[in-house]
Amino acid sequence: MTAVVLAVVAPTPLLLHSAPLPWTALVIMAAQLIISPAVWCYRRAPLLIGTILAAVAIVGYLPLLVDDTLIDFALLNSWTPLAISSVAAHWHWNRSCYRGSYRRWLLPTLLVLVTVLATRPWRFSLEHGSVGLLHTAVPALAGIYLSTRAEMIANLRSQASLSEREQELRAERARSQERARLAAELHDSVSHRVNLMVLQAGVLRMTATDEQTIRSAETLRETGCRALDDLADQLGMLRSADSTTPRAHSAEPDAGLPDALDELVEESRTVGLPVRLQIDGAIAPVEPVTRRTAYRVVQEGLTNVHKHAPGAATTVSVTYAHDQLELMVQNGPAADPPGANSATGTGAGLRGLRERVQILGGELAAAADAEGGFVMTARIPSHVG
């Protein structure tokens, strides 16, 4: 754009000057017109092009040393202010690159020389001196101002970016500390109580004489052991920076989703919940994090049925689609009165599960149906990332 402007304004003295111009003025004007395309290469060789522009500006004023009749031509020259502002802006923007080198003083020296020639201090007049300053010193100051402003804006943006990054790191550090605190509290409280439950169930199994009591105690002990495994897995995920990465030692849901779900459904059947597992589509391998999340969705759905609709007929449906898993846990109205803890739910389990599914790029929905039951559906990508 600057090159086009310089080429357009170069002939303006010829149009505005009333008297015929001498050949020296025409040569200078032609030189300015020829040099204008060099601005296209300004970014590739800024020092070289800047020096050429300043030198041509000086040449434009040299005739004033021998011929005062060219003063009007020199003052009508609009090419010089544009060239000087560009050169000054470049020098100020890159001044740190020229430290300790003659190049640091080359462009400022040329700009000062142009200003001296334009103001003609050896034959100073207020009119010519003021116009000369407007053509040289003022554009140079304007270029430096614009360069300073651009530099300040760039620094402010950089500082804002660094500040934002620092806030993100602070927030992540706070979240990590909170996760570690929660993990410690869960380990100290819940893990201790579940361990006691497992030990008591083992004692009951060893001392009971009734066969039904022995089986119930064994089921309770196995369930408690699995709860401890799940708790250890969740504590590990809390301590990890990436909560979506599965732990290698958790073999339960990673051993194969159909088998894991079949075992999960069988556990619900043993405590009196009529559950039907339906798997559709061609069973295909999915990523461990997808398999684990799908297991948790079904587990949460069955837990809610046990809690809020005991004895309700329940269907667990798993569909292997082309690039995703489609899950549904649907139950009818409760067949038995809800337990004492049915009213204590806060929805935190569903909220956490929904966030976990959304992290993987899926979606989860849960709502009551028209028949008095409840439906929870989820879609989870088979491959994440």
At the first level of CATH, the class of the largest domain is Alpha Beta
| Computed structural class | alpha+beta
H/E element order: HHHHHHHHHHHEHEEHEE
Contiguous low-pLDDT stretches (5 residues minimum) are: 241-254
Within the largest sheet, what's the order of strands? 1-2-3-5-4
Question: Mean pLDDT, rounded to whole units?
Answer: 75
Identify the CATH homologous superfamily of the largest domain.
Answer: Histidine kinase-like ATPase, C-terminal domain
CATH architecture of the largest domain: 2-Layer Sandwich
Number of structural domains: 2
Number of helices: 13
Helix content: 55-70%
Radius of gyration: 41 Å
Question: What portion of residues belong to β-strands?
Answer: 5-15%
Instruction: Characterize the largest beta sheet: strand count, sense, and whether it forms a barrel.
Output: 5 strands, mixed
End-to-end separation in angstroms reads 44 Å
DSSP strand count: 5
In CATH terms, what is the fold-level topology of the largest domain?
Heat Shock Protein 90
Query: What is the approximate shape?
Result: rod-shaped
Protein name: histidine kinase
GO molecular function: ATP binding; phosphorelay sensor kinase activity; protein dimerization activity
Pfam families: HATPase_c, HisKA_3
EC number: 2.7.13.3
